[in-house]
UniProtKB/TrEMBL annotation:
Belongs to the allantoicase family. HAMAP family: Allantoicase. Its EC number is 3.5.3.4. This is Probable allantoicase. It comes from Sphaerisporangium flaviroseum. Signal peptide: none annotated. It catalyses: allantoate + H2O = (S)-ureidoglycolate + urea. The keyword Zinc does not apply.
């Protein structure tokens, strides 16, 4: 996994992404492009559309042009990399693809998106069958939609759009907001261990449906404890913390604590001054714990320590952005 693909997938269906339009989906539906998880395949499974594919597949074009699909990002932001995955498509993959992006405020219709100012972020590039193709993106602008173009037709199993969330928090001015929410622009910047699942899951939207949709570490045998650091969506004062061990019945931490830091620029270092937000507190398995925090010090980063190891379904840090 590269540094780029470790960033959240801004287009993921479970993060609110949607394939709002496609030129064609005769053989396999367009929404499969942004499903969570790797594409699956079982040979010899035929339906009304032919062999069943866990991906997007268009008809064989008999006229000039190419096929395309427009994806609304569930979390608008700066795109750092794109993965065009043709897994399982061997005799029916597109030989070339390109990706464009645009930024449109509000809730545009498909017709309005077609008329938007699109910027090419991945030029027309060759593809192989049954392979994941990773492309680095250098455009630093904020985008809300992407358009995958395939030439001339064929199948793509997954489209991943990795980047940094750039949310518009002006909507919540004067209100309490989840400063640790990925969709608001927070990001996990450090972690002791991610043996079983990614720490980014802990700040993802929604509730975890199972253990794999949270963060879970290996079993520690060294007497230490596991931790992660979250860069908040905006500097602010955290008022309520929620530590959710939902689905973690036999592998929840025994206890946890929270510490904060105010780091004006960059990420916390070894000399960072951390101060206590929540003292080490006992946790229960499969439980949403909510704690009212004291103090008025603003923080830019929060460190969650779990003792000694285990998992956390979600971490929510509700507070007031610093004006």
């Amino acid at each position: 996994m590269s540094d780029v693909t470790r960033l959240p997938d801004l287009a993921l269906r479970s993060y609110g992404g949607s394939v709002v339009a496609a030129s064609d989906e005769s053989f396999a539906e367009r929404q499969s492009l942004i499903r969570p998880g790797a594409s699956a395949f079982r040979p010899g499974t035929f339906g009304a559309r032919g062999q069943v594919y866990d991906g997007w597949e268009t008809r064989r074009r008999r006229e000039p042009g190419h096929d395309w699909a427009i994806v609304r990002l569930g979390m608008p932001g700066v795109i750092r990399g794109v993965v065009v995955d043709t897994s399982w498509f061997i005799g029916n993959y597109p030989p070339f693809a390109s990706v464009e992006a645009c930024a449109v405020d509000g809730y545009p219709s498909v017709a309005e998106l077609q008329e938007a100012a699109w910027a090419e972020i991945v030029p027309r590039s060759p593809l192989d069958g049954d392979a994941a193709h990773e492309f680095t993106v250098g455009d630093g602008r904020r985008f809300t939609h992407v358009r995958l173009n395939i030439y001339p037709d064929g199948g793509v199993s997954r489209l991943r759009v990795h980047g940094e969330v750039v949310a518009d928090l002006a909507l919540y001015e004067g209100m309490t907001v989840d400063l640790a929410a990925l969709e608001n622009g927070a990001l996990v910047t450090g972690c002791s261990d991610e043996f079983y699942s990614s720490p980014v899951n802990v700040i993802a939207p929604g509730l975890p449906r199972h253990q794999a949709e949270g963060w879970e570490t290996a079993r520690r045998r060294d007497g230490g404890n596991d931790w992660l650091v979250v860069r908040l969506a905006a500097p602010g004062v955290v008022r309520v913390a929620e530590l959710d061990t939902t689905n973690l019945v036999f592998n929840a931490p025994g206890s946890a604590s929270l510490a904060g830091a105010d780091v004006p620029v960059g990420a916390p270092g070894e000399d960072t001054e951390w101060f206590e937000l929540l003292a080490r507190t006992r946790l229960q398995p499969d439980t949403r714990h909510r704690f009212r925090l004291q103090g008025d010090r603003a923080v830019t980063h929060v460190r969650l320590d779990i003792y000694p190891d285990g998992g956390m379904g979600r971490l929510r840090l509700h507070g007031t952005p610093r004006g």
